[in-house]
Write a structure and sequence with these properties.
The protein has about 280 residues and is of the alpha/beta class. It has eleven helices and eleven strands. It has two domains: about 120 residues, Rossmann fold; about 130 residues, Glycogen Phosphorylase B (Rossmann fold, 3-Layer(aba) Sandwich), CATH 3.40.50. The strands form two sheets. The chain has a six-stranded parallel β-sheet with strand order 8-7-6-9-10-11, sandwiched between helices. The protein has a five-stranded parallel β-sheet with strand order 3-2-1-4-5, covered by helices on one side. Helix 4 links the parallel strand 4 and strand 5.
Amino acid sequence: MLFAQVPGKDDMSKKVVFIRAGGLGDFVLSLPALIRALDLYDETILFTRKSYFSLMSGDFDSLTLKDIDSDLDTLGQVLPSCDVISFWQDEEWKRELRTGEHGNLFFLEPRPTGNEPFARNMFSQLGWVWLNEFSKTAWLGDHWSGGDALLWVHPGSGSSKKNHPLTCFTELARQWLDSKTSKRVIFSFGEADGEVYDNFLKIDLSKDRRVRLVLSENLGEIRKLMLESSVFLGNDSGPGHLAASLGVPTHVVFRTTNRKVWAPLGPRVETYESFPEASKIL
């Protein structure tokens, strides 16, 4: 069992509603709290983006899933006697929620200041104990099978400000391919990476037969494919957090965000602030 058994709190409800929208990286970083909630409460109801449902298998079988876009109008039906954990900061919504029937309300800070890691800060706000070993936990299960042939590169992110130059990634990918004929590379691009993708198509590397492009938004498919990779390389992005949470060796090069706060959680994670540091993956 990941969490030690603790005595129940007299003021805890038996049911909790966990509300988490946001990007993939935000969602994955919230998994420790979601898993802790599953451990503490008899019933946990998660309102989140439907695209994340495919990640909720195995240990999440007891979780009730609700689409935050289409099912939010049912929130009032499940709130009575429920504790609520939410990252929303809309003051009007919080005032409205406080007037209804519910248990404890936890409005967590989605963008904490300072240098405390996000997940540790999240546990602190909830009054839960964070252990150092949690930072090295594969929160979606350590399913990595090893290998040394496939490099996964994600050269984009949710914000262009977080992106290092595309050439930094393509040069490392070319070195990877040149090191051995059996080497392969996957380049993935998300919904916010249109410009990065267009620029990638203009270079010769995009036409290399050992390079595969992944544009799928199906996280279940991405998860399955990602487990075949030997190593992940990218900016501070959702796919980096996903790779780390699956146990894949993950190398993230930060630019404008604080790596002390936003470093991925996982057993094989390395973070850098420059590409010369990241070149050690070769």
